[in-house]
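Here is the promised in-class demo. Please do not try to memorize the tokens; focus on the logic of going from shape to residues.
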């Protein structure tokens, strides 16, 4: 179920059932809520009532979260395609086939789309590719001319947004599906070794690490 709660007091407003689990983060756009489900569908429901507007089917379960830009919704699926859907009509605009399931949430920046696949490839839609050694479940973020993304190969990568070349690499203790976050000149992310890392983006050096009791 997708739940709607009052932000002020937490009271229940409505819920909308799907036919599968929901890993995707919902996004609100023009009074509608867009989110994906393991039932292979992108769902669009009214933010006020929870009534369905339309759904869009893919050929695989969806763990990716939708991004909206220029009237299009972008998201990946286990069918190995990145889907672009018209935000108003719900019709497919195009699909881009890759070499593996897409759990990563795409980043849309400067008319480019960046995302990783579970086979370890990292794509920019000028079709230049970047190859990690393990799956890229982590969702990329951008600052300046650099894309930052982590992988199950135990590495945080800083990539040149135009060429896809690695600017620097930071080794984690183990692999990660965590998506990095940026604050000032620092990047934060967790890993399967149980640590949360703070890395200086300018020097690619570790600032600190915090030990948790389990995988992050």
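The designed amino acids, position by position:
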């Amino acid at each position: 179920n997708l739940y709607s709660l009052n932000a002020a007091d937490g009271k229940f407003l409505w819920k909308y059932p799907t036919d599968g689990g929901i890993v995707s983060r919902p996004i609100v756009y023009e009074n509608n809520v867009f989110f994906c489900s393991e039932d292979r569908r992108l769902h669009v429901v009214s933010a006020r009532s929870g009534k369905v507007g339309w759904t869009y089917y893919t050929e695989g379960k969806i763990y990716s979260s939708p991004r909206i830009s220029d009237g299009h919704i972008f998201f990946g699926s286990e069918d190995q395609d990145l889907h672009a859907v018209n935000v108003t009509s719900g019709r497919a605009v195009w699909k881009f086939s890759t070499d593996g399931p897409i759990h990563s949430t795409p980043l849309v920046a400067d008319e480019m789309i960046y995302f990783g696949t579970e086979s370890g490839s990292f794509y920019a839609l000028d079709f230049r590719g970047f190859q990690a050694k393990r799956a890229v479940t982590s969702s990329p973020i951008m600052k300046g001319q650099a894309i930052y993304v982590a992988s199950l190969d135990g590495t945080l990568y800083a990539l040149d947004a135009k060429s896809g070349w690695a600017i620097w690499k930071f080794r984690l203790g183990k692999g990660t599906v965590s998506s990095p976050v940026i604050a000032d000149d620092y990047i934060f992310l967790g890993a399967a070794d149980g640590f949360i890392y703070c890395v200086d983006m300018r020097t690619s050096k570790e600032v600190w690490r915090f030990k948790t009791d389990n995988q992050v």
